[in-house]
Write a structure and sequence with these properties.
about 230 residues, alpha+beta, 434 Repressor (Amino-terminal Domain), Umud Fragment, subunit A, 2 domains, nine-stranded mixed β-sheet, 6 helices, 11 strands
Length: about 230
Amino acid sequence: MNRLAEKIKNARIAAKLTEKELAQKSGVALSYLLQVESGKKVINEKIADQILSSLGEKIEFIDPDLEVKSEPVKSPLETKKIVNTQEQSKGKIHITPTGQWQDALSGIVKRVPIYDLVRWETIGYKEHPVIDNKVEGYNGEKLLYVKVTNNQVSGLRIKMNDLVFVLEAHEVNKNGIYLLEYQNKRIIRQVMKINNREFSLIQGGATEAEIVDQRAFSVIGKCLSVSFEL
């Protein structure tokens, strides 16, 4: 028996009416009412409303199993999330793009995240054009920037505040400069393979190279280029 049929039956019993009396009162056939109350026939809302109205009841369309959550009503400005700020001194207008605009631009511009080398958290983004579904010839989802926070690898011509462009990797394919995780820190080193088990980690300058077992470090990515501000 569905909820409407059950409601009709309960209302009839509460009104102390027989099926025949309710059929006459509501103007429906007795056989039809009997089939509805027994669950053999599914009643439509129009006839259910007709029967319930004769009993002084109404159809309730609220589903008791539906979870209703109260959410604050947002203003049109909050919904669009468009913020226009004007710098009168410079005569510039800055517009924060909506999510819809960002989705539209995602096919032609890729926002590559910039990570702080020490804290390893996102501190910004740098935009690159997407050409043939590639960014600088690579899969855009595997690219990131790292902002150098010290001069430890200045011997490799990478200095503090430089941005290192990195392609995610999991192993040293050939000698080069890599972003590594070593001794619970993220570091940039020139990596040279000595044999199948040992690698030389070179910091550059007068610092001696460190010979380590390949199991002592993990590769985060291969450094592709370095950019800096003049």
